[in-house]
Automatic annotation (TrEMBL):
Belongs to the anaerobic coproporphyrinogen-III oxidase family. HemW subfamily. Residues 1-243 form the Radical SAM core domain. It comes from Bifidobacterium dolichotidis. GO terms for biological process: porphyrin-containing compound biosynthetic process. It is found in: Cytoplasm. CDD domains: Radical_SAM. PANTHER family: COPROPORPHYRINIGEN III OXIDASE, RADICAL S-ADENOSYL METHIONINE DOMAIN-CONTAINING PROTEIN 1, MITOCHONDRIAL. This is Heme chaperone HemW.
Length: 388
């Protein structure tokens, strides 16, 4: 199985909480051009394909494609169409492939979304974040709840699947605010909803506001309560959790994201994008692109793979990844395949502590309960202590 991720690093403005590799026109100055971005990304595909051939890595066709950012829909729809076509030309795209783009609701209309459908996209992930205007303002989001509804209606009309992303734990957000947002997302009729806890980085505008005391720091107990609210409401609406932060109606899961959690191979295209290959000269390999668009572009123009670095995956790291990924998803972790240094008694201990599902363990799989999802990091930390 093979996936392709394209990172589009451009945004109209930088949200105060965002620590992703994104740039506005002001950030970039004369360093890069949105208009030329698709050409450079297509050139990178060619260079990466040659690297794969030179290193005996036989990939393709792509079973999923995902355009993330940043804001991919800040580009012209023709550019997104060209990127998809270039993936097909380079590696092939499998029949029935899932092809997704993220979208800021402010940047798309019905004509844009129809153009995506005509280009072969099958799915749009809208950055909703909240349905409460006051919370959206704290997050520096410019869209309104009505923009989200309009985008989903247009996607439905074009025959595309829709997903929405929510964020909980925004400073000043009440439990009732969060219930309102989750219910609003459900009422949109989408088949996939992601809900992520707000992570505040010191280098962001919000991080500086919290450090200065002008915004309150997110509270772990508050975020745990909001996770439980989301799980209760989404489950009652028929959306099942399939990964710690993701719920979907059966059969509507994000196949691309499941690929990450199943540790498949993928090529990352674009500034800061990561790649993963399970077998390069008998070893796993991780690589990551240069984050700044100007420096990234320079490498491509020199016909070089624009990696900032790469590393082989050691056996210990492979064991750690197996734990971290397997314990995040509903299908769980096959306990018969984990590192033998992990004692078999630990799984029953986690069941006794309410962290793992007892029935699943009888079938040889470690599947987290709701409590286990909330304490996922603690479980993984305890398991990793056995790996040295």
């Amino acid at each position: 199985m093979y996936e392709v991720y394209i990172h589009v690093p451009f945004c109209l403005r930088r949200c105060g909480y965002c620590d992703f590799n994104t740039y506005t026109a002001v950030d970039l100055g004369n360093g890069a051009s949105r208009d030329n971005y698709a050409n450079l990304a297509i050139d990178e595909m060619r260079i990466v394909k040659q690297w794969q051939l030179d290193h005996g890595v036989d990939e393709g066709p792509a079973s999923t494609v995902f355009l993330g950012g940043g804001t991919p829909t800040i580009l012209k729809p023709q550019d997104l169409a060209r990127l998809v076509q270039a993936i097909d030309d380079t590696w092939g795209i499998a029949a029935g492939a899932e092809i997704t783009t993220e979208a800021n609701p402010d940047t798309v209309d019905a004509d844009y979304i129809q153009a995506l459908a005509d280009a072969g996209f099958t799915r749009i992930s809208f950055g909703m974040q909240s349905a409460v205007p006051r919370v959206l303002k704290t997050l520096d989001r410019t869209h309104t709840p009505a923009n989200v509804a309009a985008g989903i209606a247009a996607a439905n009309a074009a025959g595309l699947r829709s997903s929405v992303d929510l964020i909980y734990g925004t400073p000043g957000e009440t439990l009732d605010d969060w219930r309102t947002s989750v219910q609003a997302a459900i009422d949109l009729g989408v088949d996939h909803i992601s809900a992520y806890a707000l992570t505040v980085e010191a280098t962001t505008k919000m991080g500086r506001q919290i450090a200065a005391g002008t915004l309150p720091k997110p509270d772990d107990d508050d975020e745990a309560a909001k996770y439980e609210i989301a799980d209760e409401l989404l489950t009652a609406a028929g959306l099942e959790w399939y990964e710690v932060s993701n719920w979907a109606r059966p059969g509507q899961e994000s196949r691309h994201n499941l690929g990450y959690w199943r540790n498949v191979d993928w090529a990352g295209i674009g500034p800061g994008a990561h790649s993963h290959y399970g077998n390069v000269n008998g070893q796993g390999l991780r690589a990551w692109d240069i984050p700044h668009p100007k420096l990234w572009a320079g490498k491509i123009l020199d016909n070089q793979v624009p990696w900032a670095g790469s590393e082989t995956v050691t056996p210990v790291e492979q064991a750690e990844e197996q734990l971290m990924l397997g314990l995040r998803i509903r299908e769980g972790l096959d306990i018969n395949t984990v590192d033998p240094r992990i004692p078999s008694t630990i799984w029953q201990q986690f069941v006794d502590e309410g962290l793992l599902d007892a029935a699943a363990l009888e079938q040889g799989r470690a599947v987290p309960t709701r409590k286990g999802r909330l304490l996922n990091d603690a479980m993984i930390t305890e398991l990793m202590e056995y790996l040295g």
